[in-house]
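hi! just following up on the protien thing from before. the input was this:
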Amino acid sequence: MTRAAWWHCFAGIAGDMALASLLDAGADLDQVVTGLETMPFEGWHVSAAKTARAGLVATELRVDIAPDEERSERPWATIDRALEEAEGLPPRARQRAQMVFARLATAEARLHGVPPAKVHFHEVGGLDALVDVVGTCLALESLGVDLVFSSPVALGTGTVTSAHGLLPVPAPAVVELLTGAPVHSGPKPVELTTPTGAAIIAVLAESFGSLPAMEITTSGYGAGARDLDDVPNVVQVVIGDLRSTGAAPGLTQDLVVVEANVDDVTGEVLAHTVEALMAGGALDAWLVPVVAKKGRPGHVVSFLAEPAQAARLAAVLTKETGTLGFREHHVSRSAVARAFLEVDVDGEPVRVKAGPYRLKAEYEDCSRAAAHLGLPVVEVAQRAELAAAPLRGPVA
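and the predicted 3d structure came back as:
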């Protein structure tokens, strides 16, 4: 069974709207708050209440921030380290949140001409944005969501005031984050999608389009801050099980493979490039040794990605390897339905990927647990897969 969430962004999306929609769909607010409290930041309080937008009942999120934190800014490294050290966060929620902030850092770096490591977040580094991003990832975990999808995204038009002054709408960061994704101006000439909302969608969405075939289990609406009168200022989320439709199991996606030949890059740099591509949101990345021009030994560096992410990841490939060009071709991938289970190995949480024919413990979790427990990685993996076997049940 694969549980999916589809966000309908007909009136845009913001971080608080994303989290509120999941709470409206049944995510446990107490569970979200407990997870947020593992972060080393204080001075915030979260609440949620029912409201109405153009006659449609929705949940509105309220994040109260202490006065001395209202204009806070934090470097990306500080946020990433805090997420890594927050031991109470479920591993998948941590990974998703880290990917969102990594994407934000990459976008800000390109816009301001600085390395990602030197990016200081303004609005998206404040406690309210941290609550929105990490809270959304925790809420997805509360609902057991394995895959996320999105409709085309309404962005709005006009101008908006930011820490950098008056900016056009859609904001430059939103345009950068959603490059390659299907977008439109939307129903109102105001800011409909914020950078935080754009980053959440850009990172978490497997693809953009209509509601995927699913058996709906729940749905919800997250309210935006303002009332747009004749248009509900909400984002809708629909949650359901992909396996229960009677369709063939799995998921078919239109993806992009980008590759480049390099013959003057060290093995250390190549390994780092693969890691950077995966950290940046590539669905896969790999190296193939070849004999290049003039008989030189070389490598083909390749990655698989959503079309919306291809240009940004190609820039990572170019920057890391120094290649002067790359090839791009479109492919169709059929992925078998899978689910993630989390088991305990001597007190260490380990995620296990469950497909129809086998169980596979996640290497990163096994490596971390092995280091803490003083055990071989292979033993941790075997024990995790044995523990997950009774939990899997039938997988369609």
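The chain has three domains: 3-245, 251-335, 340-392.
Residues 251-335 form a domain with the Alpha-Beta Plaits fold (CATH 3.30.70.1380).
cheers
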